[in-house]
Amino acid sequence: MDWGMKNRLSQLIKPDGHCFFLPIDHGYFQGPTRCLEKPGETIKPLLAYCDGLFVTRGVLRAVVCPDNTKPIILRVSGATSMVGKDLANEGLTTSIEEIIRLNASAVGISVFIGSEYEHQTLMNLAKLVNECENYGIPVMAVTAVGKELEKRDARYLGLCCRIAAELGARIVKTYWCEDFDKVVCGCPVPVVIAGGPKCESELEVFEFVYDGMQKGAIGINLGRNVWQSSHPVPMARALQAIIHEKATVKQAGKLYNDVKNHKS
């Protein structure tokens, strides 16, 4: 692995081998998502706890301060919306020149395996890897499933992650599922856990994140379950403890309540 690739990955993955990415890219297909209407304000109190931001170029330029910010994973696929015919009909939205100009530490792209646009999105990934490898920029593949959440089982996600890795992704973002270890074991590159729709409780989030870490994930890429929480800062702090301090579910829950009560 070239020095530039190693350097960029080291910005995102901490010395303990773990990472906490905060995605705020939801507006690229959802518009002004609840609690993300003003993303710059949303992330201000959360930056201290995450290791990287997953964001589009428009929001990056508009609201993310370039001074002493967190490393950036640039969302570079899109051109669909919630009101469109099919979320899977994505294309590449950002050139390699733009990626370099914005000094991204990595880029992220969705692939929709099993959809009508499987070939298209996998070719998007392959093309992006071809371009980014020339400049030492890691590509994170996102195993998206659109609205078809019932697809989130170990067999399907294991298939998605392995294909993404085979095409050259340096990191794969995927959903937690039962038997998550089977997903991780079949993927030769690091796996980070996606959040998906907001969970019913903080405990539910702590449980799937802890289980995923125990079964081989290197970290998380959680957005809605953080900034849509009733108490985003305590939530971010508790997740940081699971990722970087080996906190248990019980310890994370106690920390969440301690930070929440202290702030109130």
Topology:
Blueprint: H1 3-12, E1 19-23, H2 27-30, H3 39-43, E2 52-55, H4 57-63, E3 72-75, E4 77-78, E5 91-92, H5 96-101, E6 106-111, H6 118-133, E7 139-143, H7 154-166, E8 171-175, H8 180-185, E9 191-194, H9 202-214, E10 219-221, H10 224-227, H11 232-244, H12 249-263
Task: List the main descriptive attributes of the protein structure presented here.
264 residues; TIM Barrel; two-stranded antiparallel ribbon; 10 strands
Model description:
With 264 residues, the protein is of the alpha/beta class. The chain has one domain (3-228): Aldolase class I (TIM Barrel, Alpha-Beta Barrel). The chain has 12 helices and 10 strands. The protein has helices at 3-12, 27-30, 39-43, 57-63, 96-101, 118-133, 154-166, 180-185, 202-214, 224-227, 232-244, 249-263, and strands at 19-23, 52-55, 72-75, 77-78, 91-92, 106-111, 139-143, 171-175, 191-194, 219-221. The strands form 2 sheets. An 8-stranded parallel beta barrel has the order 1-2-3-6-7-8-9-10, surrounded by 6 helices. Strand 8 (171-175), helix 8 (180-185) and strand 9 form a beta-alpha-beta unit. It is globular, with a radius of gyration of 17 Å. It starts with a helix and ends with a helix. The mean pLDDT is 94.
